[in-house]
Predict the structure.
Amino acid sequence: MKLMMVAGEVSGDAHGAGLIRSLRQNCNNADLFGIGGEKMLKERFRPYFMLDTLQTHGLVEVIQHLPRLYQTLWRMREALDEEKPDALILIDYPGFNLKLAAYARKKGIPVIFFNSPQIWAWRKGRLNMIKTVVDKMIVLFPFEKKIYQQVDVDVSWVGHPLMDEMQIENDSGEFRRQYGLQNNIPLLAIAPGSRPSEMQRHLPTLLEALPRIREKTGEIQCMLPVAESLDLKEIKNITEVSPVPVTLVQEQFIEAIRACDAAIVASGTASLQTALALTPFVIVYRVSPLTFWIARHLADTKYIGLVNVLAEREIVPEILQNDFTVSNITKAAVRLLQDEDYRATMICQLKTTRSKLGEPGAYDKAALCIENTLR
């Protein structure tokens, strides 16, 4: 079995690695190549490009990266001609991946899409293109299956892979001791995002809010989980000047988020992980003003946080764009740390949302879908 795989985000790298592990259970010698990250490389993935080649942030900001993105796209089209894979496996990242899918379709190469673009949130017009160029859609949320069934796209719902992570228990007390954090002092996690551009837009405001939070709550501890896509040294230089010490934690997001009492998390996969960990939190996000204006006018949903989309109401506060201020962050964090009734209500609502994400084993089910499609 020979498959080209393309992941364009840190979360896509994790999904890609999980898929590769499951695919190798029945075909250990499979040749898997394309675009991915460090996690995929550890599973014997053959890279044409690393995923940071594709990373951008925002609708408007992507314009400056178009020459690089198109050069990468053209090289991957050539790779389809040269390698002649049995299928093209695409993981989210629709702007790039659907263009590559269209070329694969012309060449008669089956296209399988894992983790649907967020067409339920905006750009539903992509449904027509997906119907034209995608042979099999594998989705993570139950409501996505209904959307594709309505337009006769071959679709399977496999549940969310994060449910597997939730099965692994860890000792939060031991985790705190490992990083020199005390159990009797409130611990606040800040997760500004996995992209360098997200870190630049979010981290300064979060750091500025920390002493304000401490003024209102008393002594606190702060922790920042650092994604592998980020420069640890650069983040250390930024956080060292914070009047509230910030402990940096690498590659242990789930363990970190379980160990903390509350969290401030950038919208994305990390926010869903935090919800599944049942940690009270607030969602934040900021992009350029023009990007935000365009997104708001194109959006088909009131919320950007997946936990709120699943619940169809605001369980977790969303502090976005111009509302993303030191004052608002401070107010939200203080309430998360001190209002016990508020915390208990949020945790109860998060438990209800968690039940909507299916059973563990999503990657194994997805691998079976891929194998059946190829047959």
Notes: The longest strand covers residues 2-7.
